């Protein structure tokens, strides 16, 4: 199931109706607000600084996220805050209501530039790239990212952007689920990528 082509998922979402009008209104308001955002909001800065210091590597603060999410680690919408032994991190934010979901993940893999492998959740338990099925590149705010549409683990059914920075691999992904259509997810990802802010670790 996890390697099902994205087109099949899109067909299912189209039949479900997707409720894109509300998300379109959110996006229009969000784009206007994001035009002035190019720094990590003060209320979120400390949490991202703490993460950068913990892994001793740069991290990307999302200075704009879709309404009603906020990008504060440890805040109301933060559902995943995980750091591995290799200093890789996964930070997730999610909103859910009545079968609808807005969910974004941010990852960093300091010291590696290759895509890691994941084990599929199906009966075969295959080792596959965590990010697969590339669909061109997205360029925003000095970042050139590859878009992947077949992804694993916490990024299953997400559209993911993957790029390299200073010897590390970084990712931003968003769940393709109602109320968002594929085009809305891609527009959100462009907006989110455009407003990422690098937070450097502080030396003591």
3D structure, described in words:
The structure is a single chain. It is built from four helices and eleven strands. A seven-stranded antiparallel β-sheet has the order 2-3-4-10-9-8-7, covered by helices on one side. The longest helix has 15 residues, at 20-34. The radius of gyration is 16 Å and the shape is globular. It has one domain. The protein has helices at residues 6-16, 20-34, 42-55, 182-194, and strands at residues 59-62, 78-83, 89-97, 100-109, 117-119, 127-129, 131-140, 143-151, 158-165, 168-175, 196-199. It is 26% helix and 36% strand. It has 204 residues and is of the alpha+beta class.
Overall residue-averaged pLDDT value: 87
The number of helical segments is 4
Number of spatially distinct domains: 1
Strand composition percent: 35-45%
> Low-confidence spans: pLDDT under 50, at least 5 residues?
1-24, 31-35
Distance between the termini: 47 Å
* Shape summary: globular
Total number of beta strands: 11
SS class: alpha+beta
| Cα-based radius of gyration, to the nearest Å | 16 Å
Question: Numbering strands along the chain, what is their spatial order in the largest sheet?
Answer: 2-3-4-10-9-8-7
Helicity, as a percent range:
25-40%
């Amino acid at each position: 199931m996890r390697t099902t082509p994205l087109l099949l998922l899109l067909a299912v979402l189209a039949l479900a109706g997707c409720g894109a009008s509300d998300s379109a209104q959110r996006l229009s308001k969000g784009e206007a607000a994001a035009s002035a955002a190019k720094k990590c909001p003060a209320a979120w800065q400390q949490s991202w600084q703490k993460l950068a210091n913990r892994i001793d590597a740069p991290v990307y603060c999302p200075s704009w996220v879709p309404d009603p999410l906020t990008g504060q680690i440890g805040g109301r919408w933060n559902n995943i805050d995980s750091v591995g032994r290799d200093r890789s991190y996964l930070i997730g934010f999610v909103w859910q209501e009545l079968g609808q979901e807005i969910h974004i993940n941010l990852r960093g893999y300091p010291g590696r530039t290759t895509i890691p492998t994941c084990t599929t959740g199906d009966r075969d338990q295959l080792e596959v790239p965590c990010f697969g099925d590339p669909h061109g590149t997205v360029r925003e705010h000095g970042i050139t990212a590859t878009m992947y549409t077949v992804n694993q683990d916490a990024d299953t059914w997400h559209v993911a952007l993957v790029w390299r920075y200073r010897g590390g691999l970084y990712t931003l992904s968003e769940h393709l689920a109602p109320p968002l259509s594929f085009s809305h997810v891609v527009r959100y990802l462009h907006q989110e990528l455009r407003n990422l802010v690098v937070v450097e670790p502080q030396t003591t």
